[in-house]
Design a protein that fits this description.
The protein is an alpha/beta fold. The protein starts with a strand and ends with a helix. It contains 14 helices and 16 strands. The strands form 5 sheets. A 7-stranded mixed β-sheet has the order 2-10-9-6-5-3-4, with helices on both faces.
C-alpha cells in the first residue's frame, strides 16, 4: 500500500509545461514572470500590491524590517504556529511576547491580547502577528480595532490561508491578506501549501510606501527607480539623465528574490486554487461528519465559513498511540505545533511550562490528518477506518 502523508503537492502536466517554457526562455530570475505572478496573486487575494520573495520566512523578516521593528520592541503572537512567525521579530532584535489561544478555534485569543495590552503602559507594545492557523481566518476586523486603540501595526501570517476569509460585522467577506485590515500579510508556497512553488512566499499590502520599501529590501536594498535616487546625474555618469546602468543601494537589504521558473509554477497553480479550496472543504466535511459524535475525539477543526483547510486537526486521547498506529499502517499524520514558547530557544527568555495552559493542553492532544486535494475517497475512508479501529480495540 502506498503511503498517505498529511499533505502533498499536486503537480500537473500544465504546471510542468509552464516551468519548462520558462526554463527555455531568456530569464531564469528577475524576469517578467515575477511581476505576472505578483499581479495575478494580488488579483486573487483582492489587494493592491504583492511582492514575491524566496519563502514565507523571508516574507516575515522583510515585514519586520519594513515596519522598522527595533531592538527591544515588543510584539505579540501565538505560541501555536511555525517558529518563523515569532523568529522574524528576533531577527531584528525585537522581543516576542506570546499570548494564549482560544481552545475552540486554536487562534490567538483577542481577549487575552487585550489583557496583555491593558496591563502595560500604552506604547509598551509595537505590533501583533495573528496567524490564520490551519486555514481558519482570524477576525481581523476585531484585531484592527484593538490595534488602532493601542497604536499597533498588524502582520497577518496567512501562510495557511490563501483563499480563506471571514465575514465582518457588515456582512462583507474579507479575504485573508486583502490589505484592508492588516498593514502587511504573508503567504507561503511550500509544497504542502495550497499553492506550491517548491519554495516561495508573497507579501501583500495596500500601503504604497511599504510596498516600495519591500521591493528594495528583497534585493539588497537596491533601487533602479530614478525618482528615488539620492546621488546626482553627474555622479552617476550621465549627461541630462541617469544612465541605464545606474542603481543605488539605499538600505541594507537581502537577496530574498523568487526565481522566474518558481513564479511560472505559482501562476499555473493559481489557476486551480479555487478548485483546491473546494476539494479541501469537501474532505473537511467528511472528516467532520465521521468524527462529530465519537467520544474519543475531544476537539476538531469543524466546519467554519471561509476556512481554507490547510490542515484538518483532531484532538484525541492517547495521541502517541494513534500516531504510531497510523504510521504502522503507512498513514503519516503530523503534529502542528509544538508550542513556540517551550522551544529551548525561547525558554532562555523565561518562558516555561504553564505559561500558556490552553496552548499546552492543545499540544498534548492535537493531530493533523491527511488533507490535500488529491486525497482520494478511498484513502480518506481508510484513515477514518483506522482511527475507529484504534479506539475500538
Amino acid at each position: 500500500m502506498k503511503s498517505i502523508p498529511y499533505g502533498r503537492q499536486n503537480i500537473t502536466k500544465e504546471d510542468i509545461e509552464a516551468v519548462v517554457n520558462t526554463l527555455t526562455s531568456d530569464y531564469l530570475t528577475q524576469g517578467p514572470k515575477i511581476l505576472e505572478f505578483e499581479q495575478e496573486f494580488a488579483k486573487y487575494i483582492g489587494c493592491e500590491y504583492a511582492v514575491a520573495v524566496s519563502n514565507g520566512t523571508a516574507a516575515l523578516h522583510l515585514c519586520t524590517l519594513a515596519l522598522d521593528v527595533k531592538d527591544g520592541d515588543k510584539v505579540i503572537t501565538t505560541p501555536i504556529t511555525f517558529a518563523a512567525s515569532a523568529n522574524c521579530v528576533r531577527y531584528v532584535g525585537g522581543e516576542v511576547v506570546f499570548s494564549d489561544i482560544d481552545p475552540e478555534t486554536y487562534l490567538l485569543d483577542i481577549d487575552k491580547v487585550r489583557a496583555l495590552l491593558e496591563a502595560s503602559p500604552k506604547g509598551a507594545y509595537k505590533g501583533i502577528i495573528p496567524v490564520d492557523f490551519a486555514g481558519h481566518a482570524v477576525n481581523l476586523q476585531e484585531f484592527r480595532a484593538l490595534a488602532d486603540e493601542f497604536d499597533l501595526w498588524i502582520i497577518e501570517d496567512a501562510c495557511h490561508a490563501p483563499g480563506g476569509s471571514f465575514v465582518d460585522s457588515n456582512g462583507d467577506k474579507q479575504n485573508c491578506g486583502n490589505g484592508k485590515l492588516a498593514d502587511l500579510a504573508i503567504f507561503s508556497f511550500h509544497p504542502v501549501k495550497h499553492i506550491a512553488c517548491g519554495e516561495g512566499g508573497m507579501i501583500t499590502t495596500n500601503d504604497k510606501s511599504l510596498y516600495q520599501k519591500l521591493l528594495q529590501l528583497r534585493t539588497h536594498g537596491i533601487t533602479k527607480d530614478e525618482n528615488l535616487y539620492s546621488n546626482s546625474i553627474e555622479f552617476a555618469g550621465g549627461d541630462e539623465s541617469y544612465p541605464s546602468w545606474y542603481m543605488e543601494m539605499q538600505a541594507l537589504g537581502y537577496n530574498y528574490r523568487l526565481t522566474d521558473f518558481q513564479a511560472a509554477l505559482g501562476i499555473s497553480q493559481l489557476t486551480r486554487a479555487e478548485l483546491g479550496i473546494e476539494r479541501r472543504r469537501e474532505i473537511a466535511k467528511i472528516y467532520n461528519e465521521s468524527f462529530k459524535d465519537k467520544s474519543f475525539i475531544k476537539g476538531q477543526s469543524g466546519i467554519v465559513e471561509g476556512h481554507a483547510y490547510h490542515l484538518y486537526i483532531v484532538e484525541v486521547e492517547d495521541r502517541l498511540g494513534l500516531y504510531n498506529f497510523l504510521r504502522e499502517n503507512r498513514v503519516f499524520a503530523q503534529i502542528h505545533y509544538i508550542p513556540c514558547h517551550l522551544m529551548p530557544y525561547y525558554r532562555q527568555f523565561g518562558w516555561k511550562d504553564g505559561d500558556m495552559p490552553l496552548a499546552e493542553n492543545y499540544y498534548k492532544h492535537c493531530l493533523s490528518l491527511p488533507m490535500y486535494p488529491t486525497l482520494s475517497e478511498e484513502e480518506q475512508n481508510l484513515v477514518i477506518d483506522l482511527i475507529d479501529r484504534f479506539y475500538e480495540k
